[in-house]
Fold this protein.
Amino acid sequence: MKPPPDPATTPVPAGLRVDQIDSPALVIDLDAMERNITRMAEFARKHQVQWRPHANAHRCSELALQMQRAGAAGACVHKIAVAEALAAGGVRDITLTNQVIAYPKLLRVARLAARLQAQGGRLALAVDSTEGITRLAEAMAQAAPQTRIDVFVEIDVGHWRCGVAPGEPALALAQAVARLTQLRFAGLQAFQGRAQHMRSAAQRRAVATAAVQAVQTTRACIQAAGLAVPLVTGGGTGTLVHEAASGVYGELQAGSFLFMDADYARNEREPAQPAFEHALYVKTQVIARQGERAVCDAGHASHAVDAGLPWVAGLPEDQGLAYHSAGDEHGLLTAETDATPLPAIGSMLWLVPGHCDPTVNLHDTLIGVRGGLTRGVVERVLRVDARGALA
């Protein structure tokens, strides 16, 4: 058998068998991911809403463009550095769903907005204060005087993070945006982040319903003042059923559906939600056996643990194994039942990360495998363009 290439000197080649991928590595099951994309596109068409997947989940321009070819309106990002990275990779329609206050960053926003507009695209961003609106207008006047930028007034619908209060306070900000010639009021942003990981479907439904009511009240208040609300954007993988059915939201920002991490899989599924599959894995190898535990080479440096530890993927030979933290470079594997054998030294296993977004940010590349995790082969290697893009 021909040995695999040296990963230290050779890129992962197309056609490499999954058992030859060096570990730890971040791997995409392309078949599962593409089924997720298809289901999301069909869901959006059925409910007649746009979908603009949040790029935090993948930080990869190639994947953003693949979803646009499937019908996505564009991409969402949290940071201007991520927007710049995706734009460099060919993404032309980007919404920055966060507040930008620092003047140097606002100058970058203005320049990118002008560049994308010249290419037939657009950059939009969210605001939640008069200070933010004023600073944005000043930066646009200085760095992109011929460009108007779309601005969403973000309202706090219970996430307790950014966002102005619904109703009259949001109206005042919308009117302030409309008065400035270089800003265009594009509508409202409303994201109920706290609801995304509530385990009970009934809990998520109740919280999402309250958020929808706050959006309806705010939209009616703004419209009554004579200002149109072109779009309401927001929503996430945990609540997209409710935003899509609301008749208020015109665009969904869900992003984690692409990979479906272990934390989202803990949620009770809504009957109307598409059946998204796990598609992102950390490949790891058993490097030691000590008593009633095996030790693998994927620790905190390979996967994020903010939303809990990874699951051992439920392949037939790996059922009944539990993963335990053992530091930056190691993980411990134990048997959950007496009938479960521990894997031998050299065995390869697949971990479902607890939280896909920060896990992706730990890796330079995503290895795309076609044909499954048992007999598949590498089809393509995708660069994580926005790895470490934090500013």
